[in-house]
Amino acid sequence: MLFDKFSARSLHLANHMVMAPMTRSRATPAHTPDALMATYYGQRATAGLIITEGTSPSPNGLGYPRIPGLYDAAQVSAWRDTTAAVHAQGGKIFVQFMHCGRVAHVANLPKGAEVLGPGTAVCPGEMYTDTLGMQPYSPPRAMLDADIAHVVKEHVTAAKLALDAGFDGVELHGANGYLIEQFLNPLINTRTDGYGGSIDARNRLALEIARATVSAIGRDRVGIRLSPYGVFNGTGEFPEVQTQYLALAKELSALGLIYLHLVDHSAMGAPPVPADFKLKLRAAFDGLFILSGGFDHASAEKALLEKRGDLIAFGRPFLANPDLVARMRKDAPLNAPDMATFYVPGAKGYTDYPALAA
Questions:
Q1: What's the whole-model pTM score?
Q2: What are the tens digits of pLDDT across the range 220-274?
Q3: Which of 50, 73, 165, 176 sits in a 20 to 30 Å window from 229, CA-based?
Q4: pLDDT at residue 267, as a whole number
Q5: 185 Cβ neighbours under 8 A, 6+ residues apart
Q6: Catalytic one among 178, 259, 350, 353?
Q7: Helical packing angle, 275-284 and 241-255, nearest 10°
Q8: Alpha-carbon gap, residue 314 to 296, rounded angstroms
């Protein structure tokens, strides 16, 4: 079943395997994709669907060094090489929009950009900068209503540019403690205005971005990634988590998003998303349901057969195995990922993982 063709609405895939979004930090210092990135994604185009690494829809969202953006003409032109490489092999590719919000350091931002968040609380911990090494996160400026309206417009503009660049759709990153989840999670969002203080208010930004993006490019081209129970970048469980995310899923379903991509990082040590809650989320969302988190061939097949999800996302296995589909078909051994090269520039640990034929 994992390797069977899959069709739903306007999405027609070669198989049920999704390459999960993974930050690789191989864009130029100006946050523009390059030829190496096109090679990387092209190597992995046998996935039914590729979701790119987090790509900022705004200069303000570029929290990390060397992550790509999609907000100007140069980036659109550069991304076309990647989409063409994937489409040449019959693959489909969505770009993930990741506005980092407060998960940022000013040294990683271009001139004129600023660190924003729902409030002024600083993200705990440190992050890497190319110029200063490891640094504490920069204090964010609390977003005003005008800033929120602007970030919604930035997502709309970036979505239109994504289609111009040849992408098949966009994924809104509402997970892992980035801007959308910063508003969703009351451990971070302590606002008491229309964007905080209640379930509906905390869900508001995610829904406004989703609604505007769907209006701009169509419901079949917009998905979202969510991570209830995540603990990344200062997030964590809160008493209303299930009630809030079920309400959010129902609203997203009403907007007609094509998929909900659920993150469960328990395979990497995070708290698990309860199995019964996953089923409730799936029932609340009338669209495709993508499962991710520590799957192998056997567990992916089992999840599909039990109808717990429609598609299965694989992260590090795709990172280290450009021909993951072929390897899993044969249950062949997998290359081990080299963690030391996850985020460093260059081809090593990026485009030089050997294929099975080698």
A1: 0.97
A2: 999 999 999 999 999 999 999 999 999 999 999 999 999 999 999 887 777 889 9
A3: 50
A4: 75
A5: 177, 202, 235, 236, 238
A6: 178
A7: 30
A8: 8
